[in-house]
């Protein structure tokens, strides 16, 4: 870049030492410059400048196969907290291979966020594969609900409606075990509320892909392109659940 | 590589015969099953006649791993939990550079990695030693610089008990490392280090850390470390999807306002040459990000120099108005993009990056090209058959260059303008001189007024913006640089004050470094923002209590210089550069000088301000 290399007398420059001398560079002012017509939305996607485009979050299940070693869960959960991804539930369990564990995550984010979550998970060295499950995947959650048992037969009847199983009872309370989709458990809990619920413990969602598909096999790298997240089969459809 | 500043006299190195006998005894006593692995490692590592002695402890295995990786220098500070490793280093050919503070060790290692392309190594003890490294590790993480940090840890039995100098170092550093490991097994510790070294370098580079409990490094083992290879789960894509390459090439051919945006990944991926050839063949104007400085010669006609918050006006006009952007190795940091809505709003983006997670993270990529920068740009070069018809666009770019030129005034009776000093330093040094900086106004003036022409000559803290980076970085850069390359640190007064204890290291090692402190007795960038956005209320930014840096330098045993007048600038710079050891020039600049152009945070790049009244 070029500057003047020799000091000059102040008077040669137009009134530079006067009060209000403008310190800065020359060139057309901002209002004199052309401006482009386009706009991007907050995800950095080019949009019609006239249209308000906002991506709605969706809920989805991400299954992750990881090395079974200390610190992996903290790597994964730390990734979510520091990148401010909204995590709904997280479950971890062993697999058929002693050296590997499966982490099932339910997240709620707009499409670009879900895409970013998958890519960031892939970057963790102990992570072997990451896959967003399709809407027909098997998804289950387990809940234990401790209910006031003033009306034992009615409690049993409701439990029955939801395929619940009484796992503990005493004159004052009954503890019911319910398994199924998140919606089913929500509904069961809502129905149990009429008796008075003392305590609830719920696991997060566990999930496996349907049929012969592998839930989390080593992913091909082409999957992690920008387009991957918007495949229609990745859309969450509650009707298919359970 | 420069000559090693040896701190271990040859006569103090071990007696080979004695060591051999000891080692043999140990190996026999253990009746080990790892001899085969050890032998193959030895052969691969040395290649000369002298076989290194078998390792006997975890610490020796750690040092052997560094030797196998070709490590020449390690930067660090001694301490309780890391002592076994230092004891093993005592017998090694690796030169340990004792720093005055661990933060300096991590910055020096970072800079070593930037200049050499190989991971820089830093060491610290547990607890405060490890936490002092964290700033430099975080800095390397933000800038994707290859670095390996080794930290001592309390013995495994004590871990979790709040023992003396205990910190959960892997816990603390997880968010700021590419990967980290708690080494729990003496037989595996060397391999942990080898793997961490390989991970720091492979794919998108970054800092890795191995936490070394004292009992693990002290423990006996005859297990040689494996070769530095990355774990199986770490996959890097080298070549981009050919269909996307083909459609991107078609887009480039049809562009009328093309631009190349070169980021730090171009330099790290050794893709500068491929990018230059591509831009020059197809006559595409080039802007760089701040970490991308040096990827394209700034004296070339096609160069529009740096874009972003304090980028040139013409670079910002060019990225705002282009219709096709070939972005290579950049993560679209907010200091580059300004507000997302107004960033290159007419442009289709071709994004080349080795890290898939960078694709569409901040700016949507219309053509995502995941792969090694050099490989992918070569793929593109083969695919593009006709150059874009952009004569008018190029003329427009040149017009912007003259409209928004970076010329500044040098009134004779005013205090020294900082731009003048940067240009004078540039003029007094060779093209291959390495510039390191702290963070602040001086860093921006260095970006704007130094004409960079070579990759790996610009060493700065970009993503993290770490004040105090300049001097320790100059130490690391000096040891990585060729002997004929000058190393100049352009620093600010506030920045320099944060890590100037490193001068003691530069003096001890007699490192040929010239530090120019652009002294305005302010935290200048903050003062500039306070003037612009906080009604001139200079809360805690007025540093009128600065020491006299020239005298301070002399107290350390360095050469001290001071500049107060324009007439002294050239001569003093020449005198300082002529000194063989470290020199510090305290340059008293105009305290009111500001950095322009400027895009306010989150603003529109095309609406950059040329002076305060445009903010």
Q: Mind sketching the topology for me?
A:
The complex is a heterodimer of chains A (242) and B (615).
Chain A: E1 39-40, E2 46-47, E3 58-67, H1 72-82, E4 87-94, E5 100-109, H2 111-123, E6 127-132, E7 138-148, H3 152-161, E8 165-169, E9 173-180, H4 182-192, E10 197-202, E11 206-208
Antiparallel strand pairs in A: 1-2, 3-5, 3-6, 4-5, 7-9, 7-10, 7-11, 8-9
Chain B: H1 16-30, H2 35-46, H3 58-68, E1 73-76, H4 83-89, E2 95-98, H5 102-116, E3 120-124, H6 128-143, E4 147-153, H7 169-173, E5 179-182, H8 189-201, E6 207-213, H9 214-218, H10 242-253, E7 258-262, H11 264-268, H12 272-282, E8 286-288, E9 303-306, H13 313-321, E10 324-328, H14 334-337, E11 348-353, E12 367-370, H15 373-383, H16 391-403, H17 418-428, E13 434-437, H18 441-449, E14 458-459, H19 470-480, E15 487-492, H20 493-499, H21 503-508, E16 513-519, H22 524-533, H23 549-556, E17 559-563, H24 566-578, E18 583-588
Parallel strand pairs in B: 1-2, 1-3, 3-4, 4-6, 5-6, 7-8, 7-10, 8-9, 10-11, 11-12, 13-14, 13-15, 15-16, 16-18, 17-18
- Tell me the number of structural domains of chain B: 3
Put simply, the count of helices of chain B is 24
What is the succession of H and E elements of chain A?
Answer: EEEHEEHEEHEEHEE
Highest CATH level, the class of the largest domain in chain B: Alpha Beta
